[in-house]
Amino acid sequence: MTARVLVLAALLLVAGCGDDEPPAPPAGVDPVVRELREGGLVLVVRHATADAEINRQELLRSCLLQRNLTEAGREQARQIGEGIRALEIPIGDVRSSPMCRTRDTARLAFGKATLDRNLLSPGVIGTEADDERRAQAMRALVEDPPPAGENTVLVTHTGNIGNALGEETVAEGEMLVYGEGAELVGRVPAEDWAGLAGGD
Fold first, then answer.
1. In a structure prediction context, what are the per-residue pLDDT tens digits for the chain, which is 200 residues long?
2. Residues β-bridged to residue 46
3. Cα separation of 26 and 23, whole Å?
């Protein structure tokens, strides 16, 4: 009798292991973090917290003629990097607008940056047509999948993000996570990294 009960229990267990329902995700791991760990995504990051608006035209040739990261912004960028490393998120190519606040954000967070004028804030150099061309080039970067097992990072400005991707409201230090076909799959505010890393 006992043997029959054991056999029946085993059959019920096997029957319950069909393909109807996907396995539950590991407890405590954020879904966006799981996707980031797998790679194949493009991470669009607005620069960390910078000085308030300046009352003059920003010029590319000098950091003194630009908005720059505050001390809080520099620490914010470092914390983003610490969260990325703690969560073991693979980072490949890191491209940044050549403005000082974006370049510094990229280097503080990711330890490297290739400067790319296609990521410049609108209105800094050239004409409105140049701004539109840069937005289209940035969109193409987001649509270009990175190598397997890596994530590409683009550090840029809210105006360029809006023009290229239609996201008009992006906080300083916030990351937008894009998958295949420039599909937005998640957003990570700067202040969330410590909690994500601590909850892993």
1. 434 333 333 333 333 444 444 344 444 457 889 999 999 999 999 999 999 877 667 888 889 889 999 999 999 999 999 999 999 999 999 999 999 999 999 999 999 999 999 999 898 898 999 999 999 999 999 999 898 899 999 999 999 999 999 998 999 999 999 999 999 999 999 999 988 877 55
2. 156
3. 9
Number of domains the chain contains: 1
- On whether residue 61 sits in a domain, the answer given is no
Domain-located, residue 18: no
Q: Is the separation of the CB atoms in 177 and 128 below 8 Å?
A: no
Q: What are the CA-CA distances from residue 146 to residues 10, 14, 60, 149 (Å)?
A: 45, 40, 29, 8
Domain of residue 78, CATH code: 3.40.50.1240
Angle between helices 128-143 and 158-165 (to 10 degrees): 70
Which tokens sit at 126?
């050239």
Q: What is the pTM of this model?
A: 0.83
Residue 19 maps to a domain: no
DSSP secondary structure letter of residue 111: S
Q: Is the residue at 175 inside a domain?
A: yes
Report how far apart, in Å, the C-alpha atoms of 84 and of each of 167, 190, 194 are. 23, 11, 10
Q: Shortest CA distance to 101 belongs to which of 121, 81, 126?
A: 121
